[in-house]
Every structure is written in C-alpha cells, then in structure tokens.
Specification:
88 residues; 434 Repressor (Amino-terminal Domain); 5 helices; globular; mainly alpha
Length: 88
C-alpha cells in the first residue's frame, strides 16, 4: 500500500532543507519575511504555512516547490536533496 509520507513520517522531504537555506540568507529572514518574499513571487503562503512546511507537517506541491527554489536561488533538486549523479 502506497503512503504519502517520507521515510521519517514527514509529509514532505524538502522542509528541513528549506529551513536551512532560509536561515542562511544574507539578511535575517524570519518565516514571516520569507512568506512575504514568496508572495511577491506569486505564492500565497503565510507564516503558519512556512512553519508547517519546515516542520514536515504540510505537503508541498510542485508549483510551490518551484517558486520556493527560485526565491532561495537554488534548484528544486537541491530542495529535494536529490543526488542525480547516478543518472549520468
């Protein structure tokens, strides 16, 4: 039976990486400020949604993942922590 959870029981596999990268941004970037940055790029998430994503309590759609990656200036693969070297 298929389950929509990661191996650690989280609803996403990108939340921890998103938090890590958000905290590494040049200016101190709170979850609220990050939500504002996403809204400027057309993704309507609030601080609570960011908190739930980072904690793994909320699913992340592909559209959301793409915009989050753009705002953090990384690839979607970086957020998913995907090692694509085995494909080459």
């Amino acid at each position: 039976m298929y389950k929509n959870k990661s191996s650690n029981g989280s609803n996403n596999i990108c939340g921890k990486k998103i938090k890590e990268l958000r905290l590494q941004l040049p200016e101190k970037t709170s979850q609220r400020k990050f939500a504002d940055m996403l809204q400027i790029h057309g993704l309507d998430l609030d601080k609570n949604a960011i908190q739930r994503i980072e904690s793994g309590a909320r699913f992340v759609t592909d559209i959301e993942l793409k915009i989050i990656a753009q705002v953090l200036h990384v690839s979607c693969d970086t957020l998913l922590d995907v090692d694509i070297s085995y494909l080459q």
